[in-house]
């Protein structure tokens, strides 16, 4: 298990993706944090969706300042990691964009688009539960850039300057293994070739979404490796082979995805020349 945790830990800070290193200078001030992903970082976007994957009930939020009504649907007793990150940057925890009245709010500290049970692929879902997959999250961010943000900046130059200094957290992918039909063929026989092929497919889609964000003005990305999703409480409960234990099969798949992530980012780097990476794996 210690080995597993090691594999799951690294986080990649990709600065100025698809762009020159010059724009990384003068980047100490981070004006906003934008969040994309799944239940690890969802701040309540699923509250109004038809889904069982929401956390606007007790005991969620019991340790959040202001309790459940203030935690707003975070799948946590308190703050989630992007909230701590935001506070560290001197920003407000990014609110779930679905729960904000964009006509009246004034914040330019960033928004959260993440959705529990969502994945990189559109058809990743549990039965007929609704969620916001990565493509939907990106299109919601596009609306933010085109409709909300221009009201808060004097001109386009100011807006793109703001976006280029903001940080974009992307924490997604586990559900594509847990809830995707392509992978969830019963019985789930471990097949390294199939897992590898599927991981590459996911990363190809992820690359396209990162490019879209780039085209909308994003320049700094923090991309997570996937956590040990096989240790989610639900998978504990469903684990018949080893009751009360993590689902090893799922974790093996996620490790495979994580192994592909760094080489894939290296490829993105080749395409974009002066891309800067910060990771303790030294990509
Ligand atoms: C926000 O304003 C738009 C345009 O005026 C309107 O169509 C929309 O219903 C408003 N949204 C809310 C939540 O009031
Ligand atoms: C945009 O606004 C800033 C701040 O008011 C100003 O310095 C700059 O010249 C403006 N740029 C354009 C292209 O209008």
Automatic annotation (TrEMBL):
GO terms for molecular function: hydrolase activity, acting on ester bonds. The keyword Protein transport does not apply. It comes from the Eukaryota. Keywords: Hydrolase, Lipid degradation, Lipid metabolism, Secreted, Signal. The keyword Lipid metabolism applies. Residues 1-23 form the signal peptide. Pfam families: Lipase_GDSL. InterPro entries: GDSL, GDSL_esterase/lipase, SGNH_hydro_sf. This is GDSL esterase/lipase. It comes from Quillaja saponaria (Soap bark tree).
